[in-house]
Amino acid sequence: MTEAWRPDDEDERRGAFGPVRVRVPAKVNLHLGVGPLRRDGYHELNTVYHAISIYDELTARRGDTLALTMEGEGAGELALDDSNLIIRAAHALAGYAGVLPHARLHLRKQIPLAGGLAGGSADAAAALVACDALWGTGLSRDELAGIAADLGSDVPFLIYGGTALGTGRGEAVSPVLVRPTSWHWVVAIADVGLSTPAAYRELDRLRDAGTAGAPLGSTDALLGALRQRDPRVLARTLGNDLQDAALAMRPALADTLKAGEAAGALAGLVSGSGPTCVFLAADAASAERIAAELTSAGVCREARVAHGPVAGARVG
Ligand code: ATP
Questions:
Q1: Is 154 a known active-site residue?
Q2: Which of 151, 166, 170, 216 has its CA at 20 to 30 Å from residue 223's CA atom?
Q3: Whose CA is nearest to atom 14 of ligand 1?
Q4: Rounded mean pLDDT, 149-178
Q5: Domain 20-177 carries which CATH code?
Q6: What does the function comment of this entry state (predicted)?
C-alpha cells in the first residue's frame, strides 16, 4: 500500500503548501525630524518609529498568476493592479530570488488609507514576508529589508517592528533597545486621508515663508524618555516636524488634538503626515476613556485604542 504523501514540518513552517497568513502593524513616529530636501527629492529624516497594535492581514495561497483581492479599509478605492505596493513587493521578491511571482493574495485591511500610519508600506512588508514563506525562498529579515528599502522609506521598519531609529530618508533602521514597556495609545482616524508628498511640500512652503516651527533636532530626549518607562516623561518628548503642515492643510485637526488632551491624554500629536492623530495615555483604562470621549465629541471618524511596541510583519 502506498502511504499518502504529507508535507513535513519544515514545509509547513515555510508555508510551502499555503495558505500563509501574515499580520503586519501600523506605525507611528514618536519623533519625526524632517531635515533639508535632498537632491534626490527626499527629505533627510531623523525619526523614531514605533509599531502599534492596529493590523492589516495578508493571506497568500499558491496560484497560476499573481492576483490580489481585498476587504476592509479602502476596499473599492484602492487599486489592486500593478500600482499596489503588495503587487510591487511580490514582483521585487520574485525578481531578487529568481522565482515566478505566482500567488493568490488577499488583504484584510484595518489600517486606514493615506492616514499617516504607513498602511501601504505595512502591506508591502507583509507581502515580502508572506511570499518568502509561500515560495520557500527563505530570505533573512535583513535581506527582506534590503528589498523593502526600494519599495518605500517606511517598508524596512515594518519588516522589523518594535521601536527603531530611522535615518537617511527613513529606510536605514536600527532597533532601539530598551527594557520592554507597553505604551498605551489612542488613535483618532479622520474621514478623509492626506497625501504624504503634499504634506512635505506644505512643510517646504512654510519653511520658505519662515512660518514653520523650529525643527525638532536630535532624538536624544525621546530615547532617554523611552528608557525611563514613565508615560509622563515620554509625553514631553514626542514631536513631529510635519505637524504644522498637516494642521495647515487640515485645520480641524487642532480640534481633535485639543479634544484628546481635554479627555486626559498626556500628549497628542499628528501621526506622520496625518491626518491620524495619536494620543499617549497613562494606562489602558485611561486610553479606553479617551477613545470613548473622542468618538462622542465627533472630532474623528473613529477612535481606536492600541499598544506598542509590537513585532513587525510575521507569519501566524
Ligand atoms: P505614510 O505614512 O507611509 O506616508 P500613509 O499611511 O499616509 O503613508 P498609505 O495608506 O500607506 O498612506 O498609502 C498612501 C498611498 O499609497 C495610497 O493613497 C495609495 O495610492 C498607495 N498605495 C499603494 N498600495 C497600497 C496599499 N496596499 N495600501 C495602501 N495604500 C497603497
A1: yes
A2: 151
A3: 114
A4: 96
A5: 3.30.230.10
A6: Catalyzes the phosphorylation of the position 2 hydroxy group of 4-diphosphocytidyl-2C-methyl-D-erythritol.
- What are phi and psi for residue 275, nearest 5 degrees? -90, 5
**CATH topology assigned to domain 183-308:** Alpha-Beta Plaits (3.30.70)
Q: Are 56 and 24 in contact (CB under 8 A)?
A: yes
The pLDDT tens digits of the residues spanning 215-244 come to 998 999 999 999 998 999 999 999 999 999
Residue 258 a catalytic site member = no
Question: What is the enclosing helix (H) or strand (E) of 291?
Answer: helix 284-297
Question: Residue 156, annotated ligand binder?
Answer: no
Nearest to 275, CA basis, from 207, 180, 202, 204: 202
Query: Is the CB of residue 292 less than 8 Å from the CB of residue 260?
Result: no
Ligand 1 site residues (CB inside 6 A) read 78, 84-86, 113-121, 123, 154, 196, 272-273
| Band of pLDDT at residue 73, cut at 50, 70 and 90 | very high
| Residues carrying CATH 3.30.70.890, the chain | 183-308
